[in-house]
Amino acid sequence: MRSFDLYTLRTTFESQGVMMCFNGPFSHSVIEQLGDAVKNHLRSSDAPRSRVTDVFSVFVEQAQNLKNYTTARLDGIGTLAIARDGERYVVSSGNMILPEDKPQLQSRLDEIVSADADTLKLMYKTRLREPLQDGAGAGLGLLTMARTATDPIEYSILDSTGNYNFFTITVTI
Questions:
Q1: Which of 13, 27, 105, 137 is 20 to 30 A from 64, alpha carbon to alpha carbon?
Q2: What is the pTM of this model?
Q3: Which residues contact 27 (CB under 8 A, 6 or more apart)?
């Protein structure tokens, strides 16, 4: 096995306030185990209970998105990290997406990012009333995260070499 520089990885995590990070396939059992670790870690911090609930909620939304998208469409690999920035928490995930999924995802996220709190609430209620569609994606989860966030959601879609783009979403709480 090839050696890798774990110290540099640790130093990078510390410099960016990363408390927890997982890179690999997301399954129901992985999400459940990581969820327990996240809850326990957050409960042991000095964060208010409501903030712990919000961070956990966003973690679950992002983990479910990774599981549903990467398992159904790609190799199942995603990355999810939780960092602390002073009194705030930052939950970020990333995964490869198909280039043909980029325009619709970008359009949906731009609409959500530019919406104010009242508009997000209306969008959420409207989406709740819509019939469920297989593979619709970018629905309630993104709206839930946007409504929970203290800052607008940040995202990027990087064109990468090969047949995929890399999608990252970051929610600050």
A1: 13
A2: 0.90
A3: 67, 71, 76
